[in-house]
Write a structure and sequence with these properties.
- The protein has about 170 residues and is mainly alpha-helical.
- It folds into two domains: about 10-85; about 100-165, no CATH class.
- About 65% of the residues lie in helices and about 5% in strands.
- It is built from four helices and four strands.
- Helix 1 packs antiparallel against helix 2 (about 50-75) and helix 3 crosses helix 4 (about 130-150).
- The relative contact order is 0.10.
């Protein structure tokens, strides 16, 4: 049993993850602030410049990130709480890796076909549904999205490099 006085032997500590995320957000905030300043973060004759509001939002992100980073670094000696253990990380990867493959598949297959495959494979592999049921749901959801975006809203979504839905005329 693991209580707050013992140090777990394996895994990533919460404060380490917090520090890394704070550094990433601080970097994003600094880039946002620089670009906003470059666009014009000052007040002009006719109101705020194009980068005025994004600049101040970027500053808030930087200050918040710096505060979180300081807290994470100062907590290092006494923080023993794990961010994630082995089995939990494995479950995260079961979702993260297929999601990354889904994003990559969109480039080639387009949103609709990649979504149908993603939904069906998720249902079969993680939900333990039958192939016919999973394929039906995957195709039905993608068909509904196709009707909603392409036909009703007239907002075309990315069809992919191979454009497998070209035969539909959209």
């Amino acid at each position: 049993m693991n209580d707050s006085t013992t140090t777990p032997s394996r895994g990533v500590r919460s404060n380490s993850v917090e520090a890394v995320v704070a550094l990433l957000l601080l970097g994003i905030g600094l880039v946002m602030a620089y670009e906003s300043w470059r666009l014009g973060a000052r007040w002009t004759d006719d109101g705020p410049g194009a980068g005025y509001f994004p600049f101040y939002i970027a500053l808030m992100i930087c200050f918040a990130s710096a505060g979180i980073l300081i807290q994470a670094v100062r907590a290092r000696p006494r923080s023993t709480e794990l961010f994630v253990d082995g089995p939990s990380f494995s479950r995260v990867l079961q979702v993260l890796l297929p999601a990354a493959l889904f994003v990559a598949a969109i480039h080639f297959l387009g949103v609709y076909l990649a979504s149908a495959l993603y939904i069906a494979l998720f249902m079969v592999l993680l939900g333990k549904y039958s192939w016919p049921k999973a394929a039906t749901v995957g195709v039905a959801v993608s068909a509904l999205f196709f009707l909603m975006f392409e036909v009703w809203f007239k907002v075309p979504l990315f069809k992919g490099a191979l454009d497998p839905t070209r035969f539909l005329g959209y």
